[in-house]
Amino acid sequence: MLNLNQLRVFHAVATLKSFTRAADAVHLTQPGISKHIKELEEYYGVRLFERRARSIALTQAGEILLAATQQITVCLEKAERQLKELGNAPSRLALAATFTVGLHILPSRLAVFRQQHPQIEATLDIFPAKMIEEKLLKDSFDVGLVGHKINNRSLVTVEFFSDELVVIVPPQHPWASRNRKVRPEELRKESFVATATDSGTRLVVEERLRRNGVKLTKVADFGNMEAVKRAVEAGLGVSVLSQSVIQRELSAGLLRMLPVAGREMYRKFFLVHRKERYLSPAAHVFIESLSLTQRQ
Question: What 3-state DSSP class applies to 263?
Fold first, then answer.
């Protein structure tokens, strides 16, 4: 009967190309190695090795079996890492987030998560969404958090937070004291301050305004969100941002916020991970914590 140990012995002989070296590697005698190989050859009814004077070589059948045992070895090593991780403390969790999520949305949630799960060592790096997508595909991080949906069949994308998009103006702006919503078409008459053209914030804001029949023309590009807020504070224009990212400026009286009368004026944020990647227990706990936050 075929067993895993015989395949392990075969793999050692095939990769080391020596019965002697394989015997040392798997801690068996050379006759023991020969016995396992003979049993395998009898089981499959083919020769796996060509025995030569001072060397051995794989037959065609041996090459086929080697390819299979290499896959088996990879699977077993992966399972071993996963099983060891289950017993390791503390667990590690590598997160990557876009600027908006990492600076404004995730910190409070991550603080609660760390209080509830002090045994998990979570790290956070900030990257543009496109770079996060690339790094997840390379298994550089466990989980990514981004401000727009990523359409990639190799990735799983799940919404974890939705935020209202609002107009922001400086305190001296004529709209600052109004008690009604801003109509999307009113934004056409204003100097509009926006993030970089390829940023998630810019893409979402322009897409939502297009849904409401508005395409902005007088747009000043100020790079990142912090620069946009400073520009609006200075009176250089108005902008549309997620409500969550302006709380500090609102509290300090640096900006005023107005709701938008248009439809679907909100922004969704997404959790992303590679579809085929093994998710550690720490990653599962983190994802569940975000799901609970969304439901509350």
Answer: coil
HEC profile of 113-167: HHHHCCCEEEEEEECCHHHHHHHHHCCCCCEEEECCCCCCCCEEEEEEEEEEEEE
Question: Residue 232 has what pLDDT?
Answer: 97
Q: Report the phi/psi class of residue 40: left, alpha or beta, with left for phi > 0 and alpha for psi in -120 to 50.
A: alpha
Which has the closest alpha carbon to 170: 113, 108, 95, 250? 250
Separation between Cα atoms, residue 233 and residue 169, nearest integer Å? 7
Side-chain half-sphere CA neighbours of 101 within 13 A: 31
**pTM beyond 0.70:** no
Count of alpha carbons within 13 Å of 285, Cβ hemisphere only? 20
Tens digit of each residue's pLDDT (9 = 90 or more) over 232-244: 999 999 999 999 9
Say how far apart CA 287 and CA 296 lie, in whole Å.
Answer: 15
